[in-house]
């Protein structure tokens, strides 16, 4: 190794960088590494707007000191009940501001966040339904499904929406009682919330890029027809 190369390696190490590993270009700060997403989606919500409501808990590793957490987010709004906790802190960091841009949301805190593992909770937010072929899709406000490739997961949840960044997902769907929900994994539990709504809790996924998470909500009759066709085969 030449002296110039050696000097460069020591310089990068002094900055806390690994000269042998290239940072993933996500368009976000490179120091946020999601480990899991715990996502709950209530769909459809048609009383005040044609969309869905959701909440998410993001478990992530922070590798550099920062006061901002920036995530991909598009057409998600009214983010509320936000908290950030870590075993490193006796007091919860104070949220200073929320800045929503076209493709990102930036959460700024009064205190610097030091490297470590964190749980970011967004207790509730709203999203829009699409009648196109990507994002969170509806057909005649009867069938609801997702198509998140290549970078439309940000229309479902705030996340690091890049194909090389993988995390486990725990998905819960709250849907009308006359419908069924399907997802990437089997349903661990289905129970009635009230006369109008039921909740389907799916088994955790292995680490996946965000665009591979998927779910559908359909009328009971769709499932009955599908089962009947399988019997005929």
TrEMBL record:
The species this protein was found in: Ancylostoma ceylanicum
Signal peptide: 1-23
Any one GO MF annotation of this record: peptide binding
Biological processes per GO annotation: peptide catabolic process; proteolysis
Protein name per its UniProtKB record: Peptidase family M1
Matching InterPro entries: Aminopeptidase_N-like_N, Aminopeptidase_N-like_N_sf, Peptidase_M1, Peptidase_M1_aminopeptidases
Pfam families: Peptidase_M1_N
KW Protease (keyword) present: no
Limits of the Aminopeptidase N-like N-terminal domain: 33-212
GO annotations of cellular component type: cytoplasm; extracellular space; membrane
PANTHER family: PEPTIDASE_M1 DOMAIN-CONTAINING PROTEIN, PROTEASE M1 ZINC METALLOPROTEASE
UniProt entry keywords in alphabetical sequence: Signal
């Amino acid at each position: 190794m030449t002296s110039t190369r050696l000097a460069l390696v020591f310089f990068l190490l002094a900055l806390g960088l690994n000269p042998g590993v290239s940072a993933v270009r996500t368009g976000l700060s490179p120091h946020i590494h999601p480990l899991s997403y715990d996502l709950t989606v209530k769909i459809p919500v048609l009383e005040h707007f044609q969309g869905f409501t959701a909440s998410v808990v993001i478990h992530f590793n922070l590798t550099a000191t920062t006061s901002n957490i920036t995530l991909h987010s598009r057409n998600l709004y009214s983010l509320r009940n936000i908290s950030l906790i870590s075993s490193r802190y006796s007091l919860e960091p104070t949220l200073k501001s929320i800045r929503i841009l076209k493709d990102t949301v930036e959460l700024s805190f009064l205190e610097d966040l030091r490297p470590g593992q964190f749980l970011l909770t967004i207790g509730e937010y709203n999203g829009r339904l699409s009648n196109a072929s990507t994002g969170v899709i509806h057909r005649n406000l009867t069938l609801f499904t997702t198509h998140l490739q290549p970078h439309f997961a940000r229309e479902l949840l705030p996340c690091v929406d890049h194909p090389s960044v993988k995390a486990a997902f725990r998905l819960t769907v709250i849907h009308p009682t006359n419908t069924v929900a399907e997802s990437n994994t089997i349903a661990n539990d289905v129970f009635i919330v009230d006369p109008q709504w039921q909740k389907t809790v799916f088994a955790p996924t292995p680490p996946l890029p965000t665009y591979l998470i998927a779910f559908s909500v359909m009328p009971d009759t769709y499932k009955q027809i599908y089962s009947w066709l399988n019997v005929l085969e």
